[in-house]
Amino acid sequence: MGEGKSLPIIGGVAFFLMLPLIIVIAMLFTAMGSLGNAAECNSGGTEGAAFGWPTEKHEAAQGWDDDGPEKHTGLDYEVAKGSKVMAAEEGTVVSTEGDWIKIRHQDAAVETWYEFFESKSVSVGDKVTRGQEIGKSGTGTEGAPGLGGDHLHFELRVRTGENGTGALQPQDPTDSVGADATTGTSTCSCGGGPLVGGNNQEKAFNFFASNGYSKEQAAGIVGNMIHESSVEPARLQNTPPGQLTHPSEARGSSLGWGIVQWTPAGKMINPSMEATSNDEAKVESLEWQLEFLRKQLEGEGPLAEGPAGQQVKAAQSVEDAAVAFGRYFERFAGSNDLSNPRYTERKNTAREVFETFGGGDAPAGGCGAGNGDIVATAKMLAWDTPGHGKDEGDATEKYQRAMPDWNGSTGDDPFSDCGVFVATVMRMSGADPDYPTRTTSVQENYLRTSGKYDVFDDITEDQLRPGDILIGPGHTYLFVGEFNGYNAASASLHGHVPQAGNTYSIGQQFAAARLKNPPAPKS
Ligand SMILES: [Zn+2]
Q1: Which residue from 448, 507, 446, 500 is spatially nearest to 477, judged by alpha carbons?
Q2: Which of 99-103, 197-201, 383-387 tops mean pLDDT?
């Protein structure tokens, strides 16, 4: 048959035939990368999975199977009827028809589908967070190789056409489902290490100031905390300062408990006891509670409060941060009325916190963020020279810490992804907390349709302003003005981590996008 001779031809043909598949796989990785907003803050480098487990059982009884004539296009978890079913990643419920719940994720080309419910606790249009319960599992029969009886059938669906169009095709989710961001005992922090400070107020302030919040924002949070609990972790509402109420005593109370007075107390205590195997001392420690709160504000865990976190991170002053935390996180009685005198008290206390603890530099290892300054943030995260590699370890130490926190991409080479870098800068600086985490096409669409940006297609190099986002087919970077002899900062997928470089193809290949109302940069 002359195989030796024909192989190269077959190889060549096969390569072209396979091109669409290669693109599909690349898109899948890209799409999944953008889902990783769970930001498992892991300066150590272990990556969280793109999706959490949809049930408390983590082993699928029936896996993906596309070998035989009958296929199984998902994973079956054999859980008793009435078991908790959880969203595998944050997203929006797009269907609850029939046996199904379908959730569309941040990258609209990706959905997760769940089948067989006893009851559903979400409706179309609901926003859900990773790990949030969406219903109780039920019973159903699939054709073999799928299961019959009590179980949950789970699917990952991805649009495989150009730019995220086309039909939603099932993909094997096996390697994408894993460590659930809602459990586990992350010791996450940008700075890591023990709490720093002479008392609980200062420790709490330093914790947030070194975990991605500006000092103003940290003061706003702690100013509220002082009014809630005097920053006493074992304090039950309506008890005097210094009186301890341990988790097992407080968990049944309808009152508030802990540094931010989680109400009712069990709302925070129950998942914490579960996660620590009933370690009361840990649950009533300041460390545990600060980390629990930090994750809430990042939109993680069983009590996700991502929108409140974004409001705090958008605040530019101590006073605004105090109001944002009171209004969007604490939601104390009367908080809808911004003239409520409780706001004045909290603002004043936050100001005192800032004056008392905010004088020095943020503790070592702090990420520093939220000042609205795109240029300063980009320069802080990027090397000021070119020529660096593409791996995580090649990135500046600050970017290694900041990217997981502020972007969270865990897909294909996230540390060298251009869009991930621009998004990390936009989100971390506070200039635009809503900036899509990944893929230039998604970002370009956002820049052109969000209403927040002016987009200049025919711009010349000398018309650029520092902070402009340059975006074109397949690449995006930042114009930062003078930067150690260069004028731009960029990463390049598979090429290099964020670093200095020069602008090119302005107004031809690349349009410039400029925030219409940038937050005023502060020194
Ligand atoms: Zn199944």
Answers
A1: 500
A2: 99-103
**Is pLDDT of 380 > 50?**
yes
Q: Of 419, 320, 418, 444, nearest to 372 (Cα)?
A: 320
Compute, in angstroms, the gap from residue 153 CA to the centroid of ligand 1. 4
Give a three-class secondary structure readout of 67-116.
CCCCCECCEEECCCCCCEEECCCCEEEEECCCCEEEEEECCCCEEEEEEC
> 133 C-alpha vs ligand 1 centroid, how far in Å?
20
Fold of 200-357: Lysozyme (1.10.530)
CA of 62 to the centre of ligand 1 (A): 7
Domain boundaries, the chain: 51-177, 200-357, 374-515
- The architecture of the domain spanning 51-177 is Distorted Sandwich (2.70)
Would you say residue 377 has pLDDT above 80?
yes
Q: How far is the CA of 77 from the centre of ligand 1 (A)?
A: 8
Q: Residue 148 C-alpha to ligand 1 middle, in angstroms?
A: 8
Q: What pLDDT, on a 0 to 100 scale, did the predictor assign at position 164?
A: 65
Arch. (CATH architecture) of 374-515: Alpha-Beta Complex (3.90)
Structure tokens at 355: 């004056």
Environment of ion ligand 1 (residues, CB < 5 A) = 76, 142, 146, 153
pLDDT (tens digit per residue) in 19-53: 334 334 433 443 333 332 222 232 222 234 678 88
Average pLDDT over the chain, rounded to whole? 82
